[in-house]
Automatic annotation (TrEMBL):
Cofactors demanded by this protein: Zn(2+)
Entries under SUPFAM superfamilies matching the protein: Ribosomal protein S5 domain 2-like, Thioesterase/thiol ester dehydrase-isomerase
Active site: H287 (proton donor), H364
Lineage: Bacteria, Pseudomonadati, Bacteroidota, Cytophagia, Cytophagales
Predominant cellular place of this UniProt entry's protein: cytoplasm
Catalytically driven reaction(s): a (3R)-hydroxyacyl-[ACP] = a (2E)-enoyl-[ACP] + H2O; a UDP-3-O-[(3R)-3-hydroxyacyl]-N-acetyl-alpha-D-glucosamine + H2O = a UDP-3-O-[(3R)-3-hydroxyacyl]-alpha-D-glucosamine + acetate
Family matches, as PANTHER family: UDP-3-O-ACYL-N-ACETYLGLUCOSAMINE DEACETYLASE 1, MITOCHONDRIAL-RELATED (PTHR33694)
EC number(s) per entry: 4.2.1.59, 3.5.1.108
Organism: Persicobacter psychrovividus
Family of this protein: Belongs to the thioester dehydratase family. FabZ subfamily.
Positions with a binding annotation for Zn(2+): H79, H260, D264
Pfam families noted in UniProt: FabA, LpxC
Protein name: Multifunctional fusion protein
Pathway noted in the entry: Glycolipid biosynthesis; lipid IV(A) biosynthesis; lipid IV(A) from (3R)-3-hydroxytetradecanoyl-[acyl-carrier-protein] and UDP-N-acetyl-alpha-D-glucosamine: step 2/6
Amino acid sequence: MNTKQHTIKGSVAVAGVGLHTGQIATMTFVPAEAGHGYKFQRVDLEGMPVVEADVDYVVDTSRGTTLQKGEARVNTVEHVLAALVGLQIDNVMVQLDGPEPPIMDGSSMAFVEALKSVGLEEQNALRNYFEIPKSIYYSDKSKDIDIAAMPADDYRLTVMVDYNSQILGSQHASITHIKQFEKEISTCRTFVFLHELEALYNQGLIRGGDVDNAVVIVDRELSPEQMENLEKIFNKKDIVANQGFLNNVELRYKNEPARHKLLDVIGDLALAGRPLKGQIMAARPGHAANVAFARKLKKMMQESHSNIPHYDPKMPAVKDIKQIQEMLPHRYPFLMVDKIFHLDSKYVAGIKNVSLNEPQFTGHFPGNPVFPGVLMIEALAQTGGILVLSNYEDPENHWTYFLGIDKVKFRQMVTPGDTLILQCELLAPIKRGIAKMKGEAYVGNNLVCEGEMIARIVRKDS
């Protein structure tokens, strides 16, 4: 799985009819900065409002997953999100000039092809994986649905479906690595049983349904009157409704329905908000269950010290010590940042390894070495300096001077052998060379120091 975050190299659009609304829409994938995540933007509405792809904004799961924030509503987002997750793309703005992404052929294939046509771009930030720490379960006994997640070092999924149908029967589908999504899952189309169509149509759904964008499973014989109604639903004549699949459609895989259910699970679980590492097993899943499980995952994330930046020493540095020295003027014994492991336009995270060999311990509490609080603030200030300088095209030509610190608190002693995890976040956009940041330092899961800092960025030749 990717170590660093990715976006796309350029904008790319697809157009078509929405499955449930029946409205034509153009959907444009737009590159986004590191840390942006997935967001949908209704460019056809006043103010072009944005709704984040977050489980908290799910308002409907009737035959698809719908998001809404304020007046911005986006229907049937799961196939789009599955394509982004399957390609390990982290940051994209999805612009829509209508209420629903185009259904295309009922799979994620067209979205995958569009995204790959412009290429992927690695970004200067690590992926913020949520590694499922323990088994977690969801069950809906009334619908015989069970979903479980267990710890694993990659993203694996298994789905089983059983519709008590002679045509469909019991099926299962699995992937053992997310890289398998493109070839084995993305082409699998949505499906519906023939006996469900009339009810869905009467509910105001499937207004864009067509024999070309869904697999219709024919599980009963139809009377002439029912055939006429079916032609009305699809707005087509000469529909063939033999036992099997409408219009004698051939499945792309014998277990294409199960594979599509796996696709839906991937898309819906993206709403938990972070890329996952774990083994997901789902029996007879649906959108409502998937979203309920995504809520459980998000709650677990929030309870797992979500404010603490995740540092994995096995991962490569975003900026190593040589690159840090190219940006900061500080040198031994006053360089207080050893590595940067996350950096985007608003947020930075790095580390300082505290060693007894540092000169301050010669005179600061000899015999009881404690890392000075003022040096923790300096370490945060230098980390913040990297953040603000990275917002300039030529950081080597600028100095960062700190103008003030506020709301500083020291919460726990730091001693040799500790690894300080340092994070700074811009509290407002940089204006006229003035930056305001909040900084926090952790040792393990414990907050040891925090404060707000104001800095001024000055050109060296000014």
